[in-house]
Design goal:
This protein is about 50% helix and about 5% strand. By secondary structure, it is mainly alpha-helical. The longest helix is centred in the last third of the chain and has 19 residues.
Length: about 100
């Protein structure tokens, strides 16, 4: 890299919200997959009445990108079914909680 080249990025705060469309673009998934993740308990949209018919209006915390990417990896690359991915994510969350203590 030359001296005059700079790296540019955007600082994303933990409170940042993204739309379902942005989540789909970042994770290369379809809205139907996001709906399945919500129904399985992998994701929680911020909308209290998170019904699939209104999925286009859902918003998520930016941390949902990591969860979806992990779920996608478990399913597509490792052959884990949706319920197994949900369980694995739950266990990973628990491990992180225990490591913080």
């Amino acid at each position: 890299m030359a001296e005059h080249d700079t790296l540019r990025g955007q600082l994303i705060e933990a409170e940042t919200l993204i739309t379902v469309g942005e989540l789909c673009r970042h994770c290369t998934v379809r809205v139907e997959e996001v709906i399945s993740y919500v129904q399985e308990g992998i994701l929680d949209p911020l909308d209290e009445a998170a019904i699939p018919e209104k999925a286009e209006t859902w918003q998520f915390h930016i941390s949902s990108v990591r969860r979806v990417r992990t779920a996608v990896h478990l399913q597509r690359d490792l052959g884990v079914n949706l319920a197994g991915a949900a369980l694995a994510l739950e266990l990973l969350d628990r491990i992180m909680e225990l490591e913080k203590a």
